[in-house]
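Long-time lurker. I teach an intro course on protein structure, and each term I like to show students one example going from raw sequence to a predicted 3D structure in token notation. This year I'd like something fresh instead of my usual example. Would anyone be willing to generate the tokens for the chain below so I can use it in lecture? Attribution to the forum is fine with me.
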Amino acid sequence: MATSVTCAVDPRRTTTHLSAGHRKQLAVLEGALTVLIGGTSETLNTGDAMFFQADVDHGFANRTNAPSEYIMVISSRS
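-- Reply from a regular --
Happy to contribute to a lecture. Here you go:
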């Protein structure tokens, strides 16, 4: 499954997830997106991408003054 997401500006809010048995790949189309995985964070900018196992606590936040748009591909381990 692939989806495009626009993350509104809200530096105080982090959306958290736990997706047992899944992998996620993100690609930032516009802006910046902070990705939190298992207690660490990394900021991705336009053109950056990341792949990770989604069976640990993880979340996403837009900590900038502009909207952020990214694509997420979710796949299951089978």
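Some talking points for your students: The two ends are 14 Å apart (CA to CA). DSSP finds no helices and eight strands in the chain.
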